[in-house]
Amino acid sequence: MTAPLPAFAGRTYLFQVDNGAEFRNAYSADGKRLRWEGLGESAGQWEDVALHVAQVGPEQYFVSWTEQSGITVSHVMDLAELTVRAFWTYEGEGGRVGELHTGTLAPVAP
User: Fold this and answer.
1) Count of domains in the chain?
2) For residue 36, which of 63, 64, 89, 93 sits 20 to 30 Å off, Cα-Cα?
């Protein structure tokens, strides 16, 4: 039995994070890949990553990926409220650093 497509499959969102970071997140039609593009201070940065996805509630998805740099990103997307709770980790001084953030999503027209 195959899982239904996640509601974000084939869609693009502007993701605005509470720390001022902004990303354009374009999800593949099958919901298994994400191409994120940094905006503002992160302009010019982008990556295409494989996703791990689980639906955790109505219109709510736990989504996680690992970037080539070693950054790990996990977030819960609430598509009904257009909000995100994100946790990412990266190598910092003295070891691995984790950050918890909130953010909003705005659908981008095709």
Assistant:
1) 1
2) 93
Instruction: In whole angstroms, give the CA distance from residue 7 to residue 88.
Output: 23
**Domain boundaries, position 61:** 12-107
Sheet containing strand 72-78, edge to edge, reads 46-50, 33-39, 22-27, 12-17, 95-107, 83-92, 72-78, 60-66, 52-57
Express as a percent the part of the chain with pLDDT over 70: 97
For residue 3, being part of any structural domain is answered with: no
Q: Which CATH number does the domain housing residue 49 bear? A: 2.40.128.20
